[in-house]
Write a structure and sequence with these properties.
43% of the residues lie in helices and 15% in strands. The protein is built from five helices and three strands; from the N terminus they run H-H-H-E-H-E-H-E. Strands 1-2-3 form a three-stranded parallel beta sheet. The two termini are 17 Å apart.
């Protein structure tokens, strides 16, 4: 594979835990906590109440769950079915978000 090809299977495998990566826990590390604080503050300042949000590449749903808990209508999409399963399992009931999976392969314009 050359550097212009997209390896969605490899990406799915990585986020499924290959190599010990834990995307849910990433935002609990010191750099992740800074990312979380900066992003949630910016999002809260910019979104009107009850906004409709499409969270593409949202992984295990930390931001989607936070957005839904703050009254937003969220659709979460990700290449990894494993990460979407984590999001479904962690979403408080009643579920506030709609879940979907991206199954198409991106193409590169020439």
């Amino acid at each position: 594979m050359n550097d212009t090809q997209f390896d969605s299977d490899g990406l799915r495998a990585y986020y499924a835990g290959g190599g010990g990566h834990d995307e849910w826990a990433r935002l609990t590390t010191q750099p992740g906590a800074v990312e979380w604080a900066v992003n949630t503050d910016a999002i809260a300042a910019c979104l009107p109440p009850g906004a409709r949000v499409l969270d593409i590449g949202g992984g295990p749903g930390r931001y989607a769950i936070w957005l839904a808990a703050h009254g937003h209508h969220v659709t979460l999409a990700d290449l990894s079915p494993d990460l979407l399963d984590i999001a479904r399992d962690r979403m408080p009931r009643p579920a506030w978000a709609r879940w979907s999976k991206i199954s198409s392969r991106p193409t590169r314009a020439t």
